[in-house]
Amino acid sequence: MRQLLMALILVLPVCSSVRAASAGDVVFDKVVQGKCTKPDSELIKPGTSDKYNAQAKGFNDCLRVYVENENNKIAQLRAEASAEFDRIMESSTSQIRDIEHAINSAIFEVSIVNGLAEAKYQPLPGDTLASYPAAECSRPDAALLKPAPGKRAASLKNADRFEEQRLGYEACIRTYIAQAKNQIKQVQANAQAAFHRVADDANPRIVQINDDVTEALNEASKASGERNAAVNAFHSPIMVTGLNPAAPQPGGLGPIAFQPVQNQQGTESVTVNGERLPRSADMLTGAGDPDAISCRIPQQLAGSRLMGPEICKRNRDWAKLYKYGESFSPDGTKVVESEKARTFNPLTCVTRGAMNGLPAILTNCSQGGGR
Fold it and tell me: Is residue 111 exposed (0-12), middle (13-18) or buried (19+ Cβ within 10 Å)?
């Protein structure tokens, strides 16, 4: 993405050199006003060409500063957009890694149950405020495989019960993994939408700047044509300052495609259709199956146009937060008071007067409720 480029001044001598007066005193005022005044082509005649040259120089200087300022605006817009892209990528990558950790931990649990791995090598649990919960499928009862006193092997009945539990456990894990992988796709979709929001905000502003500069350059070209016509109208040569800026290069913020972060730890490929997680824009109450996973869709970050991560928890965790009037912050990094808590437990303030005979006014505020 290239910046606007333009050549502002071409001096076109017609005869001997002539003095060009400076108009620097008014250049910056004109730039602030967003308008550079074209030189008056009526001044291109004997006795007044010096005044025209002064106006032409002022116009060139004004236009140069104007385009430079607009270039800086575009550079700033692109820098801000790039920083927001980096934050989106960092947030989505963190969420995906969190989910991948949960998937691989679930796969390892199955390997332990099937005797293919040892518990001492199990991955450490993730952060308690992670955006996706760990699997909580009921493991088969290993005691069923222990032989009764005086027996060499477990009873056939107990072995069948264990196998039934094991198959149910594996089915639960497969469903969990399918939901987790679909959640990865959702995180990627959220990131893609965030990229588009940033680009859709920056692109029109950059296009408008380019359009404004193009209009200013067109005015300069028109002034150059007027100068040429006025000079050609005289038989005796007159020296005037040239105005012939080149057209700007096209600017703008091109479309940016979000490249999904691939599973980095070789997670198992499990295909289960329709395992979508319920989502809500508001604080979840935890209604429904306590073990089911529900998600709060991304919320806008404080002081930013961007959205935070999608937070997924089990309904019993949402119910616990809802009970105590708590929720997760938009960035998902901490537990905060919800609107419910602030509504039903407003601040209670007590104002006291003099203390120990000294004039003073002290106000103490506290909030009721909580755990």
Answer: middle
